[in-house]
Each structure stands twice: as structure tokens, then as C-alpha cells.
Fold this sequence. Notes:
The protein contains twelve helices and eight strands. By secondary structure, it is of the alpha/beta class.
Amino acid sequence: xxxxxxxxxxxxxxxxxxxxxxxxxxxxxxxxxxxxxxxxxxxxxxxxxxxxxxxxxxxxxxxxxxxxxxxxxxxxxxxxxxxxxxxxxxxxxxxxxxxxxxxxxxxxxxxxxxxxxxxxxxxxxxxxxxxxxxxxxxxxxxxxxxxxxxxxxxxxxxxxxxxxxxxxxxxxxxxxxxxxxxxxxxxxxxxxxxxxxxxxxxxxxxxxxxxxxxxxxxxxxxxxxxxxxxxxxxxxxxxxxxxxxxxxxxxxxxxxxxxxxxxxxxxxxxxxxxxxxxxxxxxxxxxxxxxxxxxxxxxxxxxxxxxxxxxxxxxx
Length: 316
């Protein structure tokens, strides 16, 4: 399909849609994009992501297919434009690789409606295969694929090195690196190992590049401040300047982490509720903020996300 889609003419639509056009239960879709085609037929491309690796029993394959059918039908009712549905799932129960799935409505065996959608199962394919390929998105998704002999830390570093050494625009590079970081879900022990491994030869480039654009901007500001501070430090004492610089650096890191969490929440659920914002302001541990970002990505809905954020804030 890709050669027939005019990505240069695409625009994104409101992700909030409804079971009926007068209201009803809200569905928040991951990504809906209107893309013209080379033959002049304008299409909606729906990309839905199932983040959880182990789905609860209530979320059976049939219910998942029904949900995709609901998404497609409500988009059609609202926009009257052909819809191309795509699913990316991390579920270990899903078939690995690219498959075609279907929602069928056939009361009493009589076929009434069929909605087919393409699905990519991430968890059951080889990370090595995608790291060797030329698909940048595959390098990011590889963090949730089969690791083979690699540990989770080794796989994360391999994904990050692949992204960093590729000739990509900075914005795309940062997006892919942040995806790897969010989906890695390292334990505290793995986090320590990861930090230690960053000082090893081939991983040093990861340590230098694996930061968000905001962190880079703040580092540039710190460097300018350091130059000015050097002259002042000669007069006021280097030790005092170093202590203040360290305190400012730690606070900036916390601010960046809070902004990252806020951005992830806004991207999934809309404006950050005041109660959640207050909870985030009280968190001083960057590792906890990173964990909060991960649970927001993996939450089924806003209520689940808020409950998990509260639990993490109270347990810190």
C-alpha cells in the first residue's frame, strides 16, 4: 500500500470518537491520519497499538477483533471515507509478524458484515532480524521482540546503537530512542547495569546521544553558563560554583523528566489533571518519574493510568 499513499499530503484527525454520533461511550484511538492516494481516493489510516504483553482473560481475541470493528465502523460513520485499519500488538498471545485478522458479524450463520485488518505481532519475532534490517521503526520495536542470547540491557543498548548510527533526522532519532526507553521497562537492578554499561567503549555514543531535544537544549545552556561561571568561579571559589551547578543540574533533570511524563500523558489522554500534576511535582526521584512514564504508556485507559501513578507516588 505504501507507494500509493501520499504521506506528503496527510493530516491527523481528532483521536476521540464515539460508539454513536450523539455521544455514548468514548473511544480514544491511538493514531488516525487522513491520507490521499495516488488514484485520488482519500483514505483514513487507523493505527492502533496494544501495549500489554499479557492480556487479561476478559480481553479475548474475539473481543479485540470486535473493538477494531467498532473503531472502523465509527470512523466510517463519522467521515464516510475508506478506512485502512492497522494494529501493532505486544501481546505474547498474538501470532508473530504480519497477519490478517477479521471481525465477522454473522447472526444465525448469515454473513452480514466483515471487517478485516492487518496486525503485526511484535513479541514473537526475532529482534536480531529487525536490527539487521533497514526499517527504523523495527529498531525501536525490537526492544519487545525475542532477545535470543541477549539480556534485556544488551538488547536495549543494541537498539539504541542501531538508531544512533543510522543517518536519521534528529527528531526521528529522538522519537525512536524514547520509544526504546519507554518500552524497555528495566528493573532497578537492570537500570544499574544499564548505567554501568553506558561507560563501555561502543556504548559511550549512546550515553552522549540518548537524550531528548529538551535535555540537549538545557545542556547547551549549561555549557554557556559554565563558561560564564568559570570566570566568576575564580573569584568566588570553584567549590561553591560546582555545588550550585550540581544542584541546578539535578533539578533540571527532574524538570525534564516531569515534562516527559506530562507529554506522554497528554499524548494519550489529553490535559494533565491537576491532582496528577501535583503528585508529579512532589516526586524528586528521576527513576520513579521514568517508571511513571512507562505505566502511562501501558495503561488501558485514563483511570488505570491515574491509579498506577498514584500508587507509584505513594510508594516512593
